[in-house]
Amino acid sequence: MPTDRDAARLRSAWEAFLVEALDWERTVREWRVSPRAAPDELRVHLYSRFDLNRGQPLDLLFERVREELRAALTHVTHPRYFGLFNPSVRPAGVLADALASLYNAQLAAWSHGAAALELERLALETLGRGIGFDGSCHSTFTSGGNEANFSALQCALAQRFPEWSAGGARMLPALRLYVSDQGHHSILKAARMSGLGDGAVTTLPCDATLRFDLEALRAALATDRVAGVVPLMVVGTAGTTGAGAVDPLAALGGIARGVGAWFHVDAAWGGAASLSRRLRPALEGIASADSVTWDAHKWLSVPIGAGMFFCKHPQAAAQAFATTTGYMPQAAVATEPYAVTAQWTRRALGLKVVMALGELGVEGYAQLIEHQAAMGEQLRAKLRAAGWTLTNDTPLPLVCFTNAALRAGAPDAVTVASRVQERGQCWISSLPLRGETVLRACITSYQTTPADLDALVAELAACSAA
User: Fold this and answer.
1) What is the DSSP string of 244-271?
2) Which residues contact 274 (CB under 8 A, 6 or more apart)?
3) How far apart are CA 258 and CA 22, in angstroms?
């Protein structure tokens, strides 16, 4: 039984957490963005400090874990983290995640997660309207974009081949998925997990703007038609991981419909542009998709993970995932969550989106997104003024760049990115693009300011010296 001393330590740990959370935005700027940590040394250090065979007072344990996380993480919530799509997080999302953990709701069945599920539905319908998906569609929160893209393929198979659910992959004809070489590799994973294999994925080139080459797609479809291959899915990307490009979605949708293929849009990052009046035109055509992937834990600045999957064909989701059991509670709604999604047990992933959206509203979110887009524009201007050459073209806040010295290898882009990371003041990456390796910087924090951009440009100058 817990003692008064245990209760006091629990209160002490929660009070320490509250101080950490409230001071976060002020203190994170004082930290190194990337750690000084070597795998072997860190492992030895942690094994010597944490003996998990013996219990420890919770307040002491919290303090030790907090210290280690602060010292040995790349702090993606830092305003000068210009890396992957991992954002600063809204305090409302942190609070919601704590509530979700405390109540530990089981969202597999409506009867066990009623309030959480209905709140999630409200958030999904609110966000779905921005991409042209109304309340009649199937939508759910997922662990991330990988699960959402996998769900899209499952739904496409179920829609085209209803007997597939029972007969399996062996009864399918030769199928093909079409994605650009800038598309996400989770499409390849989805094909493997579905039993189709790598050979079912045709990766096609992009045009000069790094967008899906429509003529290459048409040529591939024509070749496959002659060979008797069935086009199952065309995948467009709204905000590619490398260069932030948005494929010509309207045209891709038209081509997919013309050959009877499912049109899926992977908008894991770029979907948030739909909330901005200024950026929304970049997503023209997304409403024609059969399904859309959109990660709230990217540009909507909530804690990982909170992917979202939208599908216009609820019957396809039911066909793909439906099952019945005797041990689940009696159905309270027409389609229980576990019977229309890839997950079974699921925590209240969407509660953080509900609370962040409830605090800001759609207009408030639009302001945050447009602020980051403006920081992207300013970064482009500052880089040009400092002699850098931009190598991508996107309305989204992701900038790829190089200069004559990098192209000559004195030093190269990989070296410069590594130097920036080692100094710990900013974080950027390098990227192979159009036959050369360039530098890549993405605005991932709603707290990034022009001063942070100046700091990055200064770091680049220091780290690109021969």
Assistant:
1) --B--HHHHHHHHHHTT-EEEEE-TTGG
2) 127, 130, 131, 280, 283, 286
3) 54
Amino acid (one-letter) located at 171: M
| pLDDT tens for each residue of 380-429 | 999 999 999 999 999 999 999 999 999 999 999 999 999 999 999 999 99
Contacts of 11 (CB under 8 A, 6+ apart): none
Residues 6+ apart with CB under 8 A from 311: 137, 138, 139, 151, 152, 155, 290, 291, 292, 317
Predicted confidence (pLDDT) per residue in 51-63, tens digit: 999 988 999 999 9
Residue 437 CB contacts under 8 Å (≥ 6 apart), including other chains: 412, 413, 414, 430, 431
Residues 308 and 428: their CA atoms lie apart, in Å, by 27
What the block records as the tokens of 327 is: 């041990």
CA-based torsion, 351, 352, 355, 356: positive or negative: negative
Closest CA to 287 of 254, 239, 244, 241: 254
Using the 8-state DSSP alphabet, how is residue 330 labeled?
A: P
CA 126 to chain centre: 19
Cα–Cα distance between 361 and 306 in angstroms, integer? 18
Identify any residues that bridge with 389 across adjacent strands, giving them in sequence order: 402
CB atoms within 10 A of CB 115: 11
Q: Does an H or E element contain 227, and which?
A: helix 214-227
What pTM, to 2 d.p., does this model score?
Answer: 0.94
Q: What is the DSSP secondary structure assignment for residue 206, as one 8-state letter? A: B
**Residues 373-385: b if buried by 16+ CB within 10 A, e if exposed:** bebbebbbebbee
Q: Are 113 and 140 in contact (CB under 8 A)?
A: no
Q: How far apart are CA 316 and CA 159, in angstroms?
A: 5
- DSSP element (H, E) containing 226: helix 214-227
Residues 6+ apart with CB under 8 A from 53: none
**Domains, the chain, ordered by start:** 96-356 (3.40.640.10)
Query: Residue 107 and residue 354: Cα distance in Å, rounded?
Result: 15
Cis, bond preceding 305 (omega within 30 deg of 0): yes
Note the pLDDT of residue 93.
Answer: 96
Query: Which residue's entry shows tokens 């909330």?
Result: 275
